[in-house]
Amino acid sequence: MYIDDRISNYLEQIVQKNGLTLIHIDGTELDPDVANGRKRAIIINNNYKTNFSRYFRIAHEISHLIYTRSNDTYAFSPLSKLSDETEANLHAIQILVDFYFSEIPLKQERWERRFHFIEAFGLGQITHLVEKILA
Amino acid sequence: MVTKEQFGQKIKHIREKKHYTVRQAALQGNFSSAYLSQIENGNKNIPKVETLYRIAKGLRISKDEILHIAGITSHTAPKHPNNVDLGKQFADDDLLLSFEGKPLSPEYREAILSILRTLPDVDEKTKED
C-alpha cells in the first residue's frame, strides 16, 4: 500500500471514530478549508492553494473539532483565533507524527528525521511547532 | 459518485422539462450555449461550485438542488429532513472556522452553508448512534 492510501485510511479512521463528517468540494484556489463544530463537519477544498499538504489540512481541521472547541471560554476570548490555530496545528502535527513515526519509537531518531517529516507534509512554515512536538 | 454523463443528462432533463432552449438557459445563467451543450453531452467535468450556481440560475433551480444533482451533497442528505436555522450560528464568524483563519468569500460561504444545512446537528448524530 502506498503512503497516500495508508495515511488516508488512518485519517479516515480518526474521522469515523470521532463521529465527524469529511466532505471534499471544488472551490477556487482562494477558498480555505472549513470546520464547523455544530455539525462536526470538515470541508476540504480540493483546489485550495497552499504549501500545507492535504493530510495536514485534514488533521488540522480534525484537531479543531476534537480538541480546540471543547472549551467555550476559548471561543470568546479575543485571542481565541490565534491560540486555537496554534493549538490545532500542534495537535495536527501530533496526529501525523503518530502515523509517520509509528515504527520509530526513539525520540532521537525521530528528531533526526524531522526534516523528512516536514517535507512530507509541507510544514515548512511551522517548522518551529514540529520541533516543539519532537523535541 | 455522479459521473459527468449522468450530471449532463440530468441538467438536460431539467432544462427540457422547463421548456428552455439551450440559448435561453445560457443567457439566464450568463454562460455560453456551447458550454451548456458540452455539459449536457457529458463532455465537460462537473464544474466548480460557483459555476454550478450559474447553471442553477440558468435553469431557475435552487443552489441546494444543483449541489444535490452534482453529487456534492447527495450522500450527506439527512435521514430526517429538518429545518435547521443556521442564521444565528453563522452570524458569529468564529463558529465557522477556516483553515489558517482566512476569510470566506460570499459565494464560497454560501456554498459551505448549503452543504452544512444538509447535515444533521451533533445532537441528532448522537441520537442516531
TrEMBL record, chain A:
Question: IrrE N-terminal-like domain spans which residues?
Answer: 33-97
For this protein, the record's Pfam families field holds: Peptidase_M78 (PF06114)
Query: InterPro entries recorded for this chain?
Result: IrrE_HExxH
Protein's name in the database:
IrrE N-terminal-like domain-containing protein
Which taxonomic lineage is given here?
A: Bacteria, Bacillati, Bacillota, Bacilli, Lactobacillales
From TrEMBL, chain B:
Q: Keywords in alphabetical order, please.
A: DNA-binding
One annotated GO molecular function = DNA-binding transcription factor activity
InterPro entries according to UniProt: Cro/C1-type_HTH, Lambda_DNA-bd_dom_sf, TransReg_Diox_bact_type
Keyword check for Transferase, yes or no. no
Coiled coil feature spans: none
Q: What are the GO cellular component annotations?
A: cytosol
Q: Indicate whether DNA-binding appears among the record's keywords.
A: yes
Q: Which PANTHER family match?
A: HTH-TYPE TRANSCRIPTIONAL REGULATOR, METHYLPHOSPHONATE SYNTHASE
Q: What is this protein called?
A: Helix-turn-helix domain-containing protein
Organism this protein belongs to: Leuconostoc mesenteroides
